[in-house]
Amino acid sequence: MTATLRLGSRRSPMAVAQSRQVAGMITERTGRQVEIVGVTTLGDVSRAELTQIGGTGVFVSALREALLSGEVDLAVHSLKDLPAGPVAGIVLAAVPPRDDPRDALVARDGAKLADLPAGARIGTGSPRRAAQLLALRGDLGCVPIRGNANTRLGTVHAGDLDGVVLARAGLDRIGCLHAITQVFEPEEMLPAPGQGALAVECRASDPALAALLGAVTDPASMAAVTAERSLLEALAAGCHAPVAAYATGTEELRMRAAVMSADGRRVLHAHGATPAARARQLGRNLAAQLLRLGAADLISVNNNGACHMSRTMSVPGWAQQMSTSPSAGGSSGSGE
pLDDT per residue over 149-168, tens digit each? Predict the structure, then answer.
């Protein structure tokens, strides 16, 4: 009898939902049974702001440790949480079809962003989202917030915050699309590299399993996230840096990318296209464009913690409203 595969997953409702999605695809396409093994990560137990404990990578390290120790055979991550560089002993074996990469607002009383009052308090744990919110409306107060998606949604229902911004794909996975009051198009809020996609990792020492897991890969999604992550790696951007990138296409890959100041007042843009087979080079090319425009200065400032957001809101609880500049403008580097 073929052994059941042990799939490592964070324990949050969203992580379990997406792990079940991947497990079902593996069984359907390969016939292998999959058991989900819950793993607790530092990001799940710490109440500190993500930028203070290592960024979204804190959700990944415990799963990778379980993988390398042999506790699990494969691990599923939200791909945007993966650090961009390679890790010894682990391979990215599959990227299933990408879900909607857009960001979404959940606000009180069904409000859209334009409807919110001056000084409205919006919760987000992402410097990228905060910067782009401030570029759209410089009067907002962006509150760094922790907790799983249901906990964050609860801060809006309880009246602690006027709204929160989350990934639409994540809200879909936990059955909360009905809570969305506005979906931001990429022209308004460019997604994070890899947003909406899932990553399936396994040990590099198990090429047979890596080949098996390849059955759930979507080539277009793999090419897109390869380009986006290549840009992130070439920029050497840390967790504090608001960097956005989104690639689309099948045979030809088209990508837009941006690096912005934490207050949203300065935004550098780059865009380009290449055959999908050269996805990695596309990311490097756009990173070079951004670096020529001065992205290194913005990344350095943000990596040193100059983030215009208030202290972290531990849920339940409150956070002080941030001070914002009256200007909501942004400078465009490449004219996109």
Answer: 999 999 999 999 999 999 99
Contact indicator for 8, 76 with CB cutoff of 8 Å: yes
Task: Report which of 28, 35, 27 is spatially closest to residue 5, judged by C-alpha positions.
Answer: 35
Q: Is 183 exposed, middle or buried (0-12, 13-18, 19+ CB in 10 A)?
A: middle
DSSP alpha helix (H) spans, the chain: 13-30, 42-45, 61-69, 127-136, 149-157, 168-173, 207-213, 219-235, 279-292, 295-303
Catalytic position from the list 81, 103, 160, 162: 81
Cβ atoms of residues 92 and 155 within 8 Å: no
At 127, list the tokens. 């410097």
φ, ψ (nearest 5 deg) of residue 244: -130, 150
Question: Kind of pairing, strands 5-9 and 243-248?
Answer: unpaired
Name the nearest CA neighbour of 286 among 235, 223, 221.
Answer: 235
Name the DSSP class of 296. Answer: H
Q: Which candidate, 133, 163, 145, places its Cα nearest to that of 267?
A: 133
Tokens of 174: 């936990």
Q: Check if the beta carbon of residue 299 is closer than 8 Å to that of residue 84.
A: no
Q: Please give the Cα distance from 171 to 175 (Å, whole number).
A: 6
Structural contact between residues 91 and 68, judged by C-beta atoms closer than 8 angstroms: no
81 catalytic residue (yes or no): yes
Q: How far apart are CA 10 and CA 16, in angstroms?
A: 7
Token pair of 27, please? 């069984």
What are 242-266's pLDDT values in tens digits?
899 999 999 999 999 999 999 999 9
Specify whether the CB–CB gap between 314 and 260 falls below 8 A: no
**By the 8 A CB rule, do 30 and 217 touch?**
no
